[in-house]
Amino acid sequence: MNFDDQPDRRGTYCAKWDFLEDFSGVSPKDGLGMWVADGDFQTAPNVIEAMRAYADHGIYGYGFDDAGYREALCWWMNHRHDWQIEPDWILTTQGLGHAIGMAIDTWTNIGDGVAFFTPVYHEFSLKTQRSERRPVELPMQLIDGKYELDFETASELLDPDVKILIFCAPQNPSGRVWTRDEMRQVVEFAARHDLLVISDEIHADITFAPAKHVPMDLAAPEHRDRIITITAASKAFNLPGLRTGQAIIADDTLRAAYKRRLTMTEYSPGVPGIVATKAAYSPEGETYINALNDYLEGNSKLFNEAINTIPGLHSMPLQSTFLAWVDFSGTGMGPDEITRRVREDAKIGASPGPTFGKGGESFHRFNLAMPRAQIIEATERMQKAFSDLQ
């Protein structure tokens, strides 16, 4: 796989580049798109072959999530994550965001609280607000450059109307991979407060040794009656446009409730997403992922080394994801000035930290899933944009 080549994505219904200027004011003609979390790499060759065969058939009728697709998911989870799941645990969704929205709709009412540890993926809050529920932010502690969960403070911020805890594992935007013990502690915390846990594990396949993701269900199987795992092949295999994800639910009662909501909304999966996911979760797909992880780890190290030479900036070491989390607090600048320099001076469309909730005020998130030459260019632009600090 040659990850140094980047096909021109402009004009291909690509949010990352075609909406770059709408999002950030940065023109795609001379700017760098480092915001929305998809990659500028082609997916695995065997996935492309499977999609081409489907397209060449020429008939695109109604479909379903077949046994082979479910078996591929079961094989992948066992092989990559030592997690043995059953085919009937799998409910297919229209991507991870849809899975979150359906969980909120299934297990909460208008006005109920939905909690999550921050800073975190901004859609946790946005999905909650769009559902007319109440976001409850539980700030993490940043200790020696590493996020830690603060259960004591979190307990004080909860109220009886909070029904769900959405948890991000691995963590977006920091790239933190939680240990088995930490994952268990999250579920035990939820049990103490009678919360369901929606475990977002979409970045699980992008991890860098020695870090290893432990599925929530595997960390605390005795609490399966409150765990809903949501995931998708979209981040690892760059398939988000196919809008296909999974809710994996071991508990019969929870699964039945979720399935009812999917049925009531007349949702059924699109065939292209099923075809692509089935091909991705295979030995050939694993070869691709291993190569991609090596490349992304190289991008991360290069980016961090260069950014950390700029006085007042610190890019957090990644254990997972392709999303660099850069702290600008050492510059003494406010969020508006940081954003202005990143967008106007460096001409980079990155994601401002305040959108990730409490604790993100002095940060920006940069998407590193792009050819290495552009990573080098991005660091040079950042060094120039903050050259007065050097």
- Compute the CA-based radius of gyration: 20 Å
State the helix count. 15
Largest sheet: 7 strands, mixed
Spans of 5+ residues with little confidence (pLDDT < 50)? none
Q: What percent of residues are in strands?
A: 15-25%
Please explain how this structure is put together.
The structure is a single chain. This protein is of the alpha/beta class. The protein contains 15 helices and 15 strands. The strands form four sheets. A seven-stranded mixed beta sheet has the order 2-10-9-8-7-3-4, with helices on both faces.
Offer a quick outline of the entry.
With 390 residues, this protein is α/β, with parallel strands linked by helices. The chain has 15 helices and 15 strands.
Helices and strands in order, then pairings?
Layout: H1 15-18, H2 20-24, E1 32-33, H3 45-57, H4 67-81, E2 90-93, H5 96-107, E3 113-118, H6 123-130, E4 134-139, E5 141-143, E6 146-148, H7 151-157, E7 162-168, H8 180-192, E8 196-200, H9 216-219, E9 227-231, H10 234-237, E10 245-248, H11 252-264, H12 271-280, H13 283-307, E11 314-315, E12 323-327, H14 335-345, E13 348-349, E14 351-352, E15 363-367, H15 372-385
Parallel strand pairs: 1-13, 3-4, 3-7, 7-8, 8-9
Antiparallel strand pairs: 2-10, 5-6, 9-10, 11-12, 12-15, 14-15
Helix pairs in contact: 3-12, 4-12, 5-6, 5-11, 13-15
